[in-house]
Specification:
The chain has 450 residues and is an alpha/beta fold. The protein is built from 17 helices and 15 strands. Helix content is 38%, strand content 14%. The structure holds pyridoxal-5'-phosphate. Pyridoxal-5'-phosphate binds next to helix 6.
């Protein structure tokens, strides 16, 4: 994990006369006019009943983590493509904007009376799309996946005990265990025939008595695994045998590529396994609503659920509830089209990486809108003293800055995803295809000849 060291890397990057700067090209990547959009004319109309994901939706200068975060760390003109943080660049589903606009006309913002509408939406969405049968009493509404996960970790893992994580795994898991003041152990997966596979022997070896929770990421960010029913059952049975509760984060569940199926852990056909689990979820990835702070968790075990609830506290915002209710109720068509568009973009990424940067390892992912690229050979080919000047804690962090200076493309450094991530960088592909191919071309140009 990347942590602060006292050394101010941000101001260093801002001011350094780095040799890499010579490689940076100026200009911006995006076709849309940021100033026109900032002025409010941001709506992209449908074309022939299809949502238009091709027209670039410029999110710059809206205080967005993906675009406005990294740009602050580099001199003007260096950063061009924000291909990191897991939010999509598309304009949101129109039903969301319509519902928000209608609610804003009513000028009061006191406490809400209930979240029943939201509950109904969650139950219907999961039932109809994923075959999950949820009772409202099994469901707890939250303001993010984090608060539910942290509450579960605090409840289920005593101090000096551990959570087990199959890595490479979402970087947030490592901050969750920290927030819960517990330890963790990684079980690194191994790349076999182009897929990250669970190392079952290692996993079981690490299921020691002090491990109390297995954090599952279903589908797995950043490796893109969509876990199969038999894999989930095997995990669930092993966990049960070792008295380890399964804590399943299923926030990417709706993003599954053609030919794959998302299996909610709680739909497994083994009741004791299901009752030994808690699932955290949200549609904040599905509809790009991360800033609207809305999520939920559930368990088929009322005992587990009641225990976790004691450590959980969340407050929702009116607009967040309105936006999420609208998405659950009317967003299906928009999402199905967005998901299919991203599926096609994954194909584009695969073809481009294989054709234009043969030294980069491609892992064909089964779900999520991220892709995990192996730049290990490229990183090794760069003069270590050139990389070291960036002052990062890992080669991947240094390469992140190197690539931003050389190509203007900002990716997430693999080293934040735990063991087994050496050499990897995570790229977000949920953008207009011209932005994705523009950023890939820029990367290919920067690493050519290495
Ligand atoms: C696997 C996973 N879990 C949780 C989150 C964050 O969830 P939230 O913003 O609801 O806390 C993310 C965000 O990228 C994620 O990828």
């Amino acid at each position: 994990m990347s942590t602060s060291t006292g050394f101010n890397r941000r101001s260093f990057l801002q001011s350094a006369g780095l040799t890499a700067l010579a490689g940076a090209s100026g200009g911006v990547a995006l076709a849309g006019s940021a100033s026109a959009q900032a002025a409010g004319s941001t709506h992209i109309p449908m074309k022939g009943g299809r949502y238009d994901f091709d027209t670039v939706y410029d999110r710059r200068n809206t205080n967005t983590a993906r675009w406005d975060g990294p740009s602050r760390d580099f001199p003007e003109g260096v950063f061009r493509y924000g291909m990191g943080v897991a939010t999509m660049d598309f304009e949101c589903a129109p039903c969301i904007t319509e519902a928000l606009t209608a609610r804003v006309q009513h000028h009061t913002w006191g406490y809400m009376a209930s979240t029943d509408g939201l509950r109904d939406g969650i139950i219907k969405w999961n039932g109809e799309r994923h075959g999950l049968d949820l009772d409202p009493r099994e469901l707890v509404i939250s303001d993010g996946v984090y608060p539910g996960m942290i509450a579960a970790l605090r409840t289920l893992v005593p101090r000096n005990n551990k959570a087990l994580i199959m890595s490479p795994a979402y970087s947030g898991f490592y901050s969750m265990v920290k927030a819960a003041r517990i330890d963790y152990v990684d079980s690194p997966m191994a790349l076999k025939n182009g897929r990250f596979e669970i190392d079952w022997a290692d996993l079981e070896r690490k299921m020691t008595p002090d491990v109390r929770v297995l954090i599952l990421c279903n589908p797995q960010n950043p490796t893109g695994n969509v876990w199969r029913e038999e894999e989930l059952l095997r995990l669930g049975r092993l966990a049960l045998e070792h008295k380890i509760v399964v804590l399943s984060d299923e926030i990417h569940g709706d993003f599954v590529r053609k030919g794959h199926r998302y299996v909610p852990f709680a739909t497994l056909k083994d009741q004791p396994v299901v009752e030994n689990s808690i699932t955290c979820n949200a549609i904040s990835k599905t509809f790009n609503l991360a800033g609207m702070k809305n999520a939920y968790f559930y368990s088929k075990s009322s005992v587990l659920l009641e225990r976790v609830k004691q450590y959980h506290r969340a407050e929702l915002s009116t607009l967040g509830v309105v936006a999420n209710e609208a998405a659950y109720a009317e967003g299906q068509d928009w999402f199905n089209q967005a998901r299919d568009y991203i599926d096609g973009t994954h194909d584009l990424v695969e073809q481009t990486v294989k054709a234009k940067m043969p030294q980069v390892g491609y892992v064909r992912n089964e779900g999520t809108f991220m892709t995990f690229l192996n730049f290990g050979k490229v990183i090794k080919a760069i003069d270590p003293s050139e990389l070291a000047q960036y002052g990062g804690k890992t080669p991947e962090e240094n390469f992140q800055d190197w690539l931003t200076y050389k190509a203007g493309v900002y990716l997430n450094a693999g080293s934040v995803y735990g063991e087994g991530s050496d050499g990897y960088m995570r790229m977000n592909v949920a953008s207009a295809r011209s932005v994705v191919s523009g950023s890939l071309d820029a990367i290919a140009g920067a690493i050519k000849g290495l």
